């Protein structure tokens, strides 16, 4: 009982905070900002997001962007790095990291899909060393909260972050509502766990838009972060409101939402 109160509960709270930070940086910075250029982020805020990505995810931004843009270029057809339609949702859920690494084995993918994101000095000396960042992130948790609580928090965070983000690629192209006629789906519960990413059908219908909620009943926590930063002029949006693709406009499905 003492172990649960003194170690497990604090580790759960710490992991929740770290995962929320990682998911916020993933959806606002890596996905909506960098991959789709849905907004311009003030360099100081972008730097903080880069730091969070570096310490909490082990992701190199331009690699993530390249794999993600390829997913949009070949959504659920041959060439998609992680399509449940082609591979089955269970495989994508289970092997999301392996599929991501496999996509990066194609040495031309970054040049082809993320040419606009050349390394700067920060990448060269700091953010490009993704394993160092992840190690430092774990070390910070151990120093701040002790080895057992710190390591347990890191373990919980890593598993939840990987599971929910795999969920966007796997569950988010299989289960859920399809208000627009594309293979992706909306799952509000997954959106709560991923700062909005679970509204994935909406995203494929309007990839250049920063807001993933298209109706009052849909909740996109990442959008709250964006509008807060917009109010203090640290973010400016490319489009003020949702901008559907011509295909999405033409093909609002009858499945409803
Ligand atoms: Zn998708
Ligand atoms: Zn996207």
TrEMBL record:
Which residue range or ranges hold the Fatty acid desaturase domain? Answer: 11-208
Q: What is this protein called?
A: Unannotated protein
Record carries keyword Cytoplasm? no
One of the record's GO cellular component terms: membrane
Which keywords does this chain's UniProt record carry?
Answer: Fatty acid metabolism, Iron, Lipid metabolism, Membrane, Oxidoreductase, Transmembrane, Transmembrane helix
Chief subcellular site? membrane
Query: What PANTHER family is this protein classified in?
Result: ACYL-COA DESATURASE, DELTA-9 FATTY ACID DESATURASE, DESA
Q: Where in the cell is it found?
A: Membrane
A single GO BP term for this record reads: fatty acid metabolic process
Q: Name one GO molecular function term.
A: oxidoreductase activity, acting on paired donors, with oxidation of a pair of donors resulting in the reduction of molecular oxygen to two molecules of water
Q: Where is coiled-coil annotated?
A: none
Q: How does it sit in the membrane?
A: Multi-pass membrane protein
CDD domains according to UniProt: Delta9-FADS-like
Instruction: Enumerate the transmembrane spans.
Output: 40-59, 134-156
């Amino acid at each position: 009982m003492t172990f649960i109160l003194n170690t497990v509960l604090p580790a759960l709270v710490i992991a929740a905070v770290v995962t929320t930070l990682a998911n916020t940086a993933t959806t606002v910075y890596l996905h909506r900002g960098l991959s789709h250029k849905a907004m311009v982020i003030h360099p100081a805020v972008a730097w903080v997001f880069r730091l969070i990505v570096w310490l909490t995810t082990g992701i190199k931004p331009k690699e993530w962007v390249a794999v993600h843009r390829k997913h949009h270029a070949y959504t659920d057809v041959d060439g998609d790095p992680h399509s449940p339609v082609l591979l089955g949702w269970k495989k994508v859920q289970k092997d999301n990291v392996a599929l991501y690494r496999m996509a990066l084995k194609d040495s031309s993918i970054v040049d082809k899909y993320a040419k606009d994101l050349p390394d700067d000095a920060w990448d060269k000396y700091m953010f490009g060393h993704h394993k160092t960042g992840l190690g430092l992130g774990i070390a910070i948790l151990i120093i701040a909260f002790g080895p057992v609580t710190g390591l347990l928090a890191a373990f919980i965070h890593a598993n939840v972050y990987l599971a929910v983000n795999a969920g966007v690629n796997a569950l988010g192209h299989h289960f859920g509502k399809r208000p627009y006629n594309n293979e992706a789906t909306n799952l509000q519960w997954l959106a709560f766990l991923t700062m909005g990413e679970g509204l994935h059908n909406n995203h494929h219908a309007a990839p250049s838009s920063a807001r993933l909620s298209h109706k009052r009943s849909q909740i996109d926590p990442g959008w709250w972060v964006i509008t807060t930063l917009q109010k203090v002029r640290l973010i400016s949006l490319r489009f003020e409101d949702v901008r559907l693709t011509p295909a999405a406009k033409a093909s609002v499905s009858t499945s409803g939402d």
